[in-house]
Amino acid sequence: MPQGTVDLKAVIFDFDGVLVDSEPLHYQAFCDVLTPMGLAHSYDVYLERYIGFDDRDALRAIFQDAGRPLTPELFEHLLQAKEAAFQRIVSHGVVPFAGARELVKELYEARLPLAIASGAKTTEICLILRTLNLLEAFSVIVSADDVQAGKPHPETYQRAVEALYAAHPALGHDATSNGASPRGVVVVEDTPAGIQAARAAGLFVVAVAHTYPAGELHQAQWTVPRLSDLSLDRLRHVLKTHAPSPLS
């Protein structure tokens, strides 16, 4: 398969588990809300079964697995309670992964368009990015608030690509009959569900083994142990050497 003809145009980051070590915080927020109902799980079960879902799909799955009814009223109440619990927890501090600030700053200073495509809520994402002084680097944020179907459905990434092209006309006119072309756009993900979503959207995926072992991230085109292993030059090199050419 011919290689070496694809230039890096933009980078889309998943959020939780990629830029910030916030999955334990989401887990604690779910526990705060669900423990009184007898529906809390161990962190191992959370990682195995529910990570990668947005809050809506996670709650649906938890109740379905327990054989418990979930009325629309209870569903909305739990979503709001979980968001409030998460914000309380984050107010005590959140830690970015090693290399997160440096990579985002390097890409931003190189004028590379950046986006977030996450199953978290917009308020949660912006709160943390603002705390880390990284919010201005991202011209596009697509969250659970913006889509009907969460990952592994590709909608989150499809919307992120469309928004990047709308925000950055200089990306060019490389468009398909289905809209903005994903060619040259790299996704950084950490979960099988997220990788599946990005691949289904036609995107090139670099996985970071923060949350899952590398062997479970095999659907990505490239995998690194940690975010600090990535740089602008390495992303360019990986895309050029591992992405198929337009004629392949």
TrEMBL record:
Q: Name one GO molecular function term.
A: hydrolase activity
Q: Which NCBIfam families match?
A: HAD-SF-IA-v3 (TIGR01509)
Gene3D superfamilies (alphabetical): HAD superfamily/HAD-like (3.40.50.1000), Putative phosphatase, domain 2 (1.10.150.240)
Q: Which organism is it from?
A: Desulfosoma caldarium
Swiss-Prot/TrEMBL cofactor(s): Mg(2+)
InterPro entries from the xrefs? Beta-PGM-like, HAD-like_sf, HAD-SF_hydro_IA, HAD_2, HAD_sf, PGP-like_dom2
Recorded protein name is HAD superfamily hydrolase (TIGR01509 family)
Write out the entry's keywords from A to Z: Hydrolase, Magnesium, Metal-binding
